[in-house]
């Protein structure tokens, strides 16, 4: 991982210290947080010059929160500071202002706490089944054999599709994700076509035989009108694709970091074993401590001064979630796992403002279900000896987590 900060050398851009840290590189486990922590403490802001457009890094909690709230002038025309090119279309992410509000109004009800609660029974049942599959073996690659499969099954259920389709859907989504992070672009493009064709068939089936639009999201998307117009087939497919891209890799990654922590910290694991009802609070502290979406990107639409930064139209902003969630000014002793810490629900792991994560209640439910069902069946486990754990850069994830337990 290349790293060096201009804070100490006096190198500046528009008066702001320059950072050369490459956050897209892979590193040893928790390497990115160490760099983010160091840069946040070295200077309030940095200009990072590792990309042709460069980006302005907001790092402190209060600044990052304010950045999320400036949605009128800082828009998602740039979604990631590390990759500011438009990329594949995403909905509702790519919309801003009134258009965004109108589409969120259509989809929000399916992700509200009450709607997500309808998936609770399935989340626990499916999780228990998958844990029972690995339990007799005494070991598994937690990422490949569990953490990838579980959210995929629930995602299909969310769209009202058969969970059993996970069998062929999973290899496609893995190939597609691989393409975003250095894998074979041709294979990724082919996988994307297959996924879109799969969604297309599912949506057409629902057009032919609609279900209750109050409970079935695809039927609702078909039936909904925005300014009197139906949502096009293409946009419905983009919404399905967005939910897949936004929901699968994130949930899987969160599980990897959580279970690494629990395997390494027997005391924290004991808290969950002794009282599984603390699972939702534990999830919250885990995603504060290990925010895998370390940044959200934005593009500045109007010149302005932001706490001493001179910004011009077209500037790329890095809203540093990974720095804010571990900012000791907001969360004292940020490296400690403290269930029920003060102000915990103000963490920014799901973003803030109008683009705040649509799937956050679902993610919370899924993660809490795993804490409960896994520890009920496999309370004690360890990381296989001699394994060097790593994390992918960009949006953090662990490629592998080999766990062992006694059977
Ligand atoms: C631990 C798991 C998750 C994390 C950490 C996470 C994180 C985030 C963050 C930080 C954003 C804001 C991005 C921005 O402001 O530019 C976001 C947006 C979004 N997330 Fe999640 N997410 C998770 C799970 C999910 C799931 C399970 C789904 C759906 C099935 C989902 C769907 C979305 C969508 C659609 C958006 C865009 C919302 C909009 O622009 O209006 N996420 N997520």
From TrEMBL:
Keyword Transferase: no
CDD domains reported for this sequence: P450cam-like (cd11035)
Record InterPro entries: Cyt_P450 (IPR001128), Cyt_P450_B (IPR002397), Cyt_P450_CS (IPR017972), Cyt_P450_sf (IPR036396)
Statement: the UniProt record of this protein carries the keyword Transmembrane: no
UniProt keyword terms in alphabetical order: Heme, Iron, Metal-binding, Monooxygenase, Oxidoreductase
Pfam family, one: p450
Segments for region (Disordered): 1-21
TM region(s), chain numbering: none
Family, similarity comment: Belongs to the cytochrome P450 family.
Name of the protein in its database record: Cytochrome P450
